[in-house]
Write a structure and sequence with these properties.
homodimer; mainly alpha; 2 domains; elongated; DNA-binding
DNA sequence: ATTTGACTATTATCGTTTATTAGTCAAATA
DNA sequence: TATTTGACTAATAAACGATAATAGTCAAAT
């Protein structure tokens, strides 16, 4: 990625995270980055696509970090699940532009991001399903019924926590008990 | 409750559930109930308060049904938790006016209902906390850390399911595995 | 105490103008 | 050739008034 493009992207990320998508203008981003507005459009084509790139970069970072965890060799599937949940929450907590998309009052405005979020959901669901299947194969886990549905519900739970944690400022309070909760969940799925 | 008031309330509930709060007019409700509009205002004071009553009546029904479950004598706390989760989802599935308040595009418009929902949340949290505490006292459950936070997270999970289940039409698909999931959760919190 | 419906007050909607901001492009630069 | 620039245009949001729809009132009737 060229230095100009990189500069524009990081400036956009900072500005969007400060004022939100709708209260940030392209002129403002260009000015902050000390570049011409034309360069923004040369590299990103539109404001929506620029914001997409910003959110995508946050999700790509999350994906990279999670990939390390999911692919850790010789690790008990329960430990992978634990590490996954913890890491996910930590990174989401600092993904300010992703958090912006959670605001229900903007729900309809972010439709152009639906596919990005959906793609991430599918990726996570796939990874969770794989690790659950591996756990069952290794006799570490015991899961009656459809494994994919468990993966889906785990994701629903984690995503359900996002609003209280990141938008309603309960991160500190709830995260303190998160380890205990993870313990219970893994106990629930463990083969005893 | 007077017959007129009852008639108005049930007509309002039907009409709101059919067209939603904003696309239903007071004239329409009065006409459907074959009453004068003045009667609506005599009994309910405003459109918002009328809708409140409608949603409250759905939540009161839920409360009543759950109270029976929570207060069942001589019942294992795990069975109470299981019955609670199942019953909650069944009743929520038919509480159409409550479901309307879940729509994120209307989020800001339903602020006058926030206290009703919050009150229900607190009630549920209190009931769950009580049953978890009872379970621990009876040596049926094992929960390290703050019990209230578990109650809160269980509620977050159940409420997180509402949107996929009721608004995105996944009720049939996901509910089929719900029993298995409940089994896992109760296993996770059980003292072994 | 309750019910009624003609009436008033508010709020949504539409059309128009103005201001802001998204998006373009020919020329300059490297 | 690929990139950068900023004056320029096009599209959209905000502001405003006029009109339509609907929330809410109240004196009279039951």
């Amino acid at each position: 990625m060229s230095p100009t493009k990189e500069k524009l992207l990081s400036t956009a990320s900072k500005t969007f995270s400060k004022y939100g998508f709708y209260k940030t203008s392209m002129d403002e981003i260009a000015k902050s980055a000390r570049k011409a507005k034309g360069s923004l459009y040369y590299h990103f084509n539109s404001k929506e696509l620029l914001f997409r790139e910003v959110v995508l970069s946050e999700l790509d970072f999350l994906k990279e970090e999670l990939t390390v965890i999911f692919n850790a060799p010789n690790t008990d599937s329960r430990d992978i699940i634990k590490a996954y949940m913890t890491k996910r929450m930590m990174i989401m907590n600092i993904s300010i532009n992703y958090q912006e998309t959670l605001r229900p009052e903007f729900y309809e405005f972010y439709e152009f991001l639906n596919d990005v979020i959906l793609e991430m959901d599918l990726w996570e669901k796939k990874q969770i399903t794989a690790i659950l299947n591996k756990g069952v194969a290794n006799d570490e886990l015991e899961l009656p019924g459809d494994i994919e549905v468990y993966a889906e519900m785990l994701l629903i739970f984690l995503k359900g926590l996002e609003t209280p944690l990141f938008l309603k400022g309960q991160y500190e309070r709830l995260i303190s008990n998160f380890d205990n909760l993870i313990g219970i969940l893994t106990k629930g799925i463990s083969k005893l």
